[in-house]
Every structure is written in structure tokens, then in C-alpha cells.
Amino acid sequence: VQLQAFGGGLVQPGGYLRLSCASSSELNLGYYSIAWFRQAPGKEREGISAIRNGDRRQVYSDSVKGRFTISRDIAKNTMYLQMNSLKPDDTAVYYCAATAGNPIYQNLLRPNLYNVWGQGTLVTVSS
User: Fold this and answer.
1) pLDDT at residue number 105
2) What is the per-residue pLDDT across 99-119, written as a single tens digit (0 to 9) for each?
3) Nearest-CA neighbor of 111 among 47, 63, 53?
4) Measured between alpha carbons, how far is 60 from 49 in angstroms, rounded to an integer?
5) Residue 19's closest CA among 33, 31, 4, 29?
């Protein structure tokens, strides 16, 4: 296992969670473009945030912009997704992913460009 996501759970609307994704030693996140995706029941996998390798440029989907923040700690070889002001529509399985490639900014949230995936962690937003 190269990526392992954790931190999901049940949270009330308006609450917050921080997801973590730990990478194994053979996959140095400092040299990869990284991203978070989510998939709700019956829906396609959606890219929500990414950091491009090289210029460290970040991108967010309109659905999470202003509420979620992606980050990574190179020393811990771990990436994070801070999720604030959670809504019931945020309920999904969340996946972390990485690619050694350097996608153009417009493609950073396309799942087919990522070849390393974590196993997913479930986030449920409900009262």
C-alpha cells in the first residue's frame, strides 16, 4: 500500500473534519502532483482539490472552493484535506491520489491522470 487515507467519520452540517493521507517511503509526495477526489453513491468520481508538482499551484472545484484546503507536509510525507462548513452534499467516500506527472492546471482534477490511489475514507455529513 503506497497511499493510505484516514480521518473520515460522521459530522453534523456546519462542522469540520481533516482528512490525512500518508504515503509510504518509496513514494515521496514532494515529487508528485497530489489530489483529493470524492465519490458519492450513484455519482461519478469528482476531483475536488489538487496541488501540482513544480510550481505548487493549487486548484479547487467550485463545490468546495472557500471551504476546503489542501496541504502537504513533506517531512511527514503526508497530505491533508481540511474541510470546513460541511454540508450534507459533501457526503462521499474521499480518495487521495498522486501522479509523478505534471498535468496542466486545467487537467489537475481529472482522475484518469492519477495512477496511485489510496483506499478511500467515508465522510458522512448528517444531523
Assistant:
1) 86
2) 998 888 889 999 999 999 999
3) 47
4) 4
5) 4
Sort strands 58-60 and 46-51 into parallel, antiparallel or unpaired.
antiparallel
Cα–Cα nearest to 117, from 87, 95, 100, 101: 95
Three-state SS across the chain?
CCEEEECCEEECCCCCEEEEEEECCCCCHHHCEEEEEEECCCCCCEEEEEECCCCCCEEECCCCCCCEEEEEECCCCEEEEEECCCCHHHCEEEEEEEECCCCCHHHCCCHHHCCEECCCEEEEECC
Neighbours of 98 (CB within 10 A): 25
Count of beta carbons in the 10 Å neighbourhood of residue 53: 18
- With cell 481540511, the residue in question is 82
Look up cell 460541511; give the residue. 86
CB distance 124 to 11 below 8 Å: yes
| Cβ-based neighbour number of residue 70 at 10 Å | 21
Long-range contacts for 71-75 (Cβ within 8 Å, ≥24 apart)? 72/29, 72/30, 72/34, 74/29, 74/30
